Amino acid sequence: MSGYVHDVLRDFDALIGLMLDMIQAQAGLSIEPGEEWTNDAQILATKLFKQLCSTRAMLSETEILTHDGQRFPFIDHSSATILARACIESYIVLHWIFQNEDKQLRHFRHSVWRLAGLMDRLSIHPSTDEGRAKVAETEVQVAELLPLIERSPYLQRYTPKQANRLLKGDWRVDWSWTDEAVRAGFNKKYFENVYGHLCGYAHSSYISSMQIAQAQQLEQQYMLAEGSLQAAVHVIARFIHFYADLFPTARETLKSAPEGVQAISRYWNFGSKEMDHLFDK
Predict the structure, then answer these.
(1) Do 69 and 111 belong together in one domain?
(2) Are residues 108 and 74 in the same domain?
(3) For residue 271, how many C-alpha atoms fall within 13 Å in the half-sphere facing its CB?
(4) Is 34 within the bounds of a domain?
(5) Domain boundary residue, one of 155, 176, 197
(6) Are residues 91 and 46 in the same domain?
(7) Contact indicator for 228, 77 with CB cutoff of 8 Å
(8) Three-state SS for 176?
(9) Which of 129, 130, 173 lies closest to 154 in space, CA to CA?
(10) Beta bridge pairs of residue 118
(11) Which residue among 176, 205, 231 closes a domain?
(12) One domain, residues 266 and 227
């Protein structure tokens, strides 16, 4: 790709197509009995794919026509930023659960993650018969899952206090987004900068409100949204190479992709050391 000039939007469109091909390459493959839990890698990947596409969609202009005929066009860069944060978190969780040579540890992490979700459902107060039936079903699932976690040797790696929290549904015990982002290949300072900014929008910080007030022109709004998309493109590239390591079919799909697309994925798959010089004092 000599002479190729990288463009965030064009590179996103190239990589998102490859990502979809890699996910679909897994669809319909048989799963060994007892290994059904591994299918959640596919489900998390699909969730991430949709979040990324929604982030991309936020760069398009929206126009509201009022009752008196006035037009109000805007680009919702605030939502693009919040979605970019969700993309980063989805990838980190996928990586945490499934990136480990120890298959039993992967299964344990999946189990505590699943338990947390089930416990969240039990905290909801149902108001319909259907809801009450779902809660009853969830109680059975929790009762089946808890003994498996309690018997796991990996539970012994936690202190008694931590293990108690974990068994109550707190799956992020001894865990932080920054630490797991670094393990997933992100540069620590880059992640802290980007993730902190994205969280500010999700939690309605002053800076997010100030930027919304200042970005009155569509061009300014687009620029801010494109910044969030840039983080999303990095996530796609990290996902592509991670997923290729995880599944042989995904790896073959990557190998058979056009060389130009592979080159784009390598360009955006920059690692921690490649960014260190940007933060040198």
Answers:
(1) no
(2) no
(3) 5
(4) no
(5) 176
(6) yes
(7) yes
(8) coil
(9) 173
(10) none
(11) 176
(12) yes
User: What 3-state DSSP class applies to 2?
Assistant: coil
- When pLDDT is cut at 50, 70 and 90, the band that residue 3 belongs to is low
Strands (E), 59-159: 62-65, 71-74
Distance CA 182, CA 271 (A): 10
Which of 15, 13, 54, 87 lies closest to 244, judged by CA?
15
How many domains are there within the chain?
Answer: 2
Sign of the CA dihedral running 123, 128, 131, 136: positive
CB 281 within 8 A of CB 195: no
Q: Are residues 172 and 199 in the same domain?
A: no
232-251: burial string, b at 16+ Cβ within 10 Å, e else? bbbbbbbbbbbbbebbebbb
Please give the model's pTM, rounded to 2 decimal places. 0.92
Let me know whether 114 and 215 are in one domain.
no
Quote the CA–CA distance of 239 and 180 in Å, as a whole number: 14
Tens of pLDDT along 114-171?
A: 999 999 999 999 999 999 999 999 999 999 999 999 999 999 999 999 999 999 999 9
Residue 62 token pair: 């929206």
Domain that holds residue 1: 1-29+39-98+184-281
**DSSP designation for 257:** S
Instruction: State which amino acid sits at residue 86.
Output: A
